Structure formats: structure tokens, C-alpha cells
């Protein structure tokens, strides 16, 4: 038996890297499929999916329906309004790249849902390959592979199999981070515009490019910074910033309302705050949410901002001092800091919170650094438990769980 295990290990180690990642990815997808089937069996008439839904129903559920709507009907030229006169939820909150790419693929396969599933599934595999490439030079081949295992099996792994833009954005993000770290800046002229129209978050990448440029300038004596690289970094930072605000401009031009996009995004926040939302103020969302959720949990609302501040300080300290995080290298830490700051500035924590943390996926590498087999198996087990908790609440319970009390 020991000889068989040794032989299998050697064959695994000698197999081509894309094949090893494919085996990991397909195994993870099989587990996720089993969990989705289990959730479907437990769905009731009280869920948004009703009793006995199929996997195809999950593929086009929740926000996937908005991408589908974008693909079929485009964007409204007139913003829909609620009975109170506020801007209602509408398609302007969802970027076009995934929606129309899935439509093109779906044209060949017979439905938008099939196109969306295949796009998410395939993009997820290549995101695993890109994540391994991103981490292997810093963590080594073994830890990089474990990072892929955690990433492919994580709590939000259902995103690899449903009609969301997450996996496509992650693929583009990992490629962009890798290109930046390897100083292949010219690739970013292609990647940044596509990222900008796939999913919100390119402004975080603009901030990261700025911090990357400052870091390189600070260390220019030991790591020479050529003039052409300075030009690339400045121009690409400007491109990412312009691209980040361009969707707001486009929405304003089409609808005739300069605030169309922000008003659309705030329409989702309005569902959670009984008192309504007056307008967008950076960083206000997390403060409001901390008070809201502490109130819902029966705790003093004044504790919310205090706990929030402690979380921010803890996250900052981890990025700076934690050895496992430092092993990721300065660029991935700068990206994590940039994206966390972006989320703090624009987001209101609610049912999408964990999904919106996916761009921090390179941080899986920090959990893969410890070489203890018990530790790694424990992290994987926690990932699978978290995955079931997420799938059960989102797909089995549906509306019976994710609703404002």
C-alpha cells in the first residue's frame, strides 16, 4: 500500500502542471455540483427557486438574471423609479463584457444560461492556472498548488458554475497582477479596459498601480526604475482611473442623468436601510452597515463602528506584520490593501459581502505557506464547510434567508 501511494505521488508530481491543476479544479467542481444538488433537494416552496429546482435554475439565479437581461434587452435609456420616486434597481449596475460574451457562447449552445455556465467554468480553470503562476515564484510550487486547492474549493466556489462575472474578472485580475509584478506593463493596456467593463473594481487597480509606482520609486536604487517604466505606470494609472469612471459617464449620457449609475447602486442599499439613502458618501456604507447589523443582532448599535475600526486595524496589521502574508511579496500586499480600501469606500456590507471579497483570492497563498499537512487539510475542510453554508443559505433557503428582517 505504501509503495502504491509512493508511486501515485511520483506520477502526480511528474504530471504536466496544467493537468494537475485541471484534476484539482474538476474535483472541486464535482464537490460543488454535489453540494448544489443537495441544496436543490432541500429547496422548498418558500425559496425563490421553489421545490425541486434544477442546476440550470441556479446558473441563472440572483444577479445572473441581470446579466441575462443585459444580454437580451441592453440598458434602459430611462431609469425606472419606485413608488416613492427613487431610482429602482436596474441593469446599469452590471457591466456588459460577461453578459454579451455569455450570449455569444450561448448562441452556439442554445441558451444564454449554457453560455454563462461555460464561460464561468472555463474562466475559473484558467484563473486557477494564473493564480498558480502568480504565486509560485514567491511561495514555491507546492504552496502555490495548495493555494489553488483552497481557491477552487473556497466558500464562494459556486461562482465557478453560475452566471456571474466573478471568475472572468478574477482571471483578468490575476493576469494583470502577474504582468505588473513581472514588469510586462504593455499587457495592461489590453487587460485594464476589459476588466473595467467586466465588473466594478478597476479603481482599486488604479490605486494599486499608484502604490506600485511609489514602491518602485522608493526602491529604485536596488531595483532600477527605467524612464519608460515610469511612463507606463503613470499612463496605465490614468487609464485605469478614466476607465473606472467611464461607466458612470456612459450611464449618464444614455439616461440623461449624470448620477444614474450611483443612484442605481444605491437602490440596492436602500433595500436594507429603512430610513433611506440621501446620496453617496465615501466610507459611509460600512459605518451605516455596522450600526444596522448590530441592531439586527440585538447588540448596541454604538458597538458597530468600534468593531469596524478594530477590524480595519487588524487587517492593516496583518498585511504589514504577519509573516505568512509578507511571504506573498509587496505587490500582492499592496493590491490587497488597495482593494480593501476600495471596498471600505464604496460598499455597504450585506448578502454579497463574501462574494465581493473574491478579488483578494491571492491571499489564499498566505494560508498555504505553513507546511503542516494537518493545517492544510484543516483549511480545506473549513473551505468545504463554508462552501456548504453559503450554498445552503443562498440556494436552498433563497429568499427565506437573504432578506431584511
Q: How does the major sheet shape up?
A: none
Helix content percent band: 55-70%
Q: Count every helix, treating DSSP H or I runs of 4 or more residues as helices.
A: 19
Distance between the termini: 55 Å
Shape: globular
**Total beta strands:** 0
Along the chain, the helix and strand elements come as HHHHHHHHHHHHHHHHHHH
- Identify the quaternary structure here: single chain
Could you tell me the mean pLDDT?
92
Count of spatially separate domains? 1
Rg, alpha carbons: 22 Å
Structural class: mainly alpha
Point out poorly predicted stretches.
401-405
Content of β-strand: under 5%
Task: Provide keyphrases for this structure.
single chain; 405 residues; mainly alpha; globular; disordered C terminus
Give your account of this protein's structure.
The protein contains 19 helices and no strands. It is an all-alpha fold and 405 residues long. It has one domain. It is globular, with a radius of gyration of 22 Å.
Summarize the structure.
With 405 residues, the protein is mainly α.
SSE order and pairing:
Elements: H1 2-14, H2 17-42, H3 55-59, H4 64-73, H5 96-109, H6 112-139, H7 141-153, H8 166-181, H9 188-196, H10 202-218, H11 227-255, H12 260-270, H13 284-296, H14 303-321, H15 323-326, H16 330-346, H17 353-356, H18 364-368, H19 373-397
Helix pairs in contact: 2-6, 2-7, 2-19, 4-5, 5-6, 6-7, 6-8, 7-19, 8-9, 9-11, 10-11, 10-16, 13-14
Amino acid at each position: 500500500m505504501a509503495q502504491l501511494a509512493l508511486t501515485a505521488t511520483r506520477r502526480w508530481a511528474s504530471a504536466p502542471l496544467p493537468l494537475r491543476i485541471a484534476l484539482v479544479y474538476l474535483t472541486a467542481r464535482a464537490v460543488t455540483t454535489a453540494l448544489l444538488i443537495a441544496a436543490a433537494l432541500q429547496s422548498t416552496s418558500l425559496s425563490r427557486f421553489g421545490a425541486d429546482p434544477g442546476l440550470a435554475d441556479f446558473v441563472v439565479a440572483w444577479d445572473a438574471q441581470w446579466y441575462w437581461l443585459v444580454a437580451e434587452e441592453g440598458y434602459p435609456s430611462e431609469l425606472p423609479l419606485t413608488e416613492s420616486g427613487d431610482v429602482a434597481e436596474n441593469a446599469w449596475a452590471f457591466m456588459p463584457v460577461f453578459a454579451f460574451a455569455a450570449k455569444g457562447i450561448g448562441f452556439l449552445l442554445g441558451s444564454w444560461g449554457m453560455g454563462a455556465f461555460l464561460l464561468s467554468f472555463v474562466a475559473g480553470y484558467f484563473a486557477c492556472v494564473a493564480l498558480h503562476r502568480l504565486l509560485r515564484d514567491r511561495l514555491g510550487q507546492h504552496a502555490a498548488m495548495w493555494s489553488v486547492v483552497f481557491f477552487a474549493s473556497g466558500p464562494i466556489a459556486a461562482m465557478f458554475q453560475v452566471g456571474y462575472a466573478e471568475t472572468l474578472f478574477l482571471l483578468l485580475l490575476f493576469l494583470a497582477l502577474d504582468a505588473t509584478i513581472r514588469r510586462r506593463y504593455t499587457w495592461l493596456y489590453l487587460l485594464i479596459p476589459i476588466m473595467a467593463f467586466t465588473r466594478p473594481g478597476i479603481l482599486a487597480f488604479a490605486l494599486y498601480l499608484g502604490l506600485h509606482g511609489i514602491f518602485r520609486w522608493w526602491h529604485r536604487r536596488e531595483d532600477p526604475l527605467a524612464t519608460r517604466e515610469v511612463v507606463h505606470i503613470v499612463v496605465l494609472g490614468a487609464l485605469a482611473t478614466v476607465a473606472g469612471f467611464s461607466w458612470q459617464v456612459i450611464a449618464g449620457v444614455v439616461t440623461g442623468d449624470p448620477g444614474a449609475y450611483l443612484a442605481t447602486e444605491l437602490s440596492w442599499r436602500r433595500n436594507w436601510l429603512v430610513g433611506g439613502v440621501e446620496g453617496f458618501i465615501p466610507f459611509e456604507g460600512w459605518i451605516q452597515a455596522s450600526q444596522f447589523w448590530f441592531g439586527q443582532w440585538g447588540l448596541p448599535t454604538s458597538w458597530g463602528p468600534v468593531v469596524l475600526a478594530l477590524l480595519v486595524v487588524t487587517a492593516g496589521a496583518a498585511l504589514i506584520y504577519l509573516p505568512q502574508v509578507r511571504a506573498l511579496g509587496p505587490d500582492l500586499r499592496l493590491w490587497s490593501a488597495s482593494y480593501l480600501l476600495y471596498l471600505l469606500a464604496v460598499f455597504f456590507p450585506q448578502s454579497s459581502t463574501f462574494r465581493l471579497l473574491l478579488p483578494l483570492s491571492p491571499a489564499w497563498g498566505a494560508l498555504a505557506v505553513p507546511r503542516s499537512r494537518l493545517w492544510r487539510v484543516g483549511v480545506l475542510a473549513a473551505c468545504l464547510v463554508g462552501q456548504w453554508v453559503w450554498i445552503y443559505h443562498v440556494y436552498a433557503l433563497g429568499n427565506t434567508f437573504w432578506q431584511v428582517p
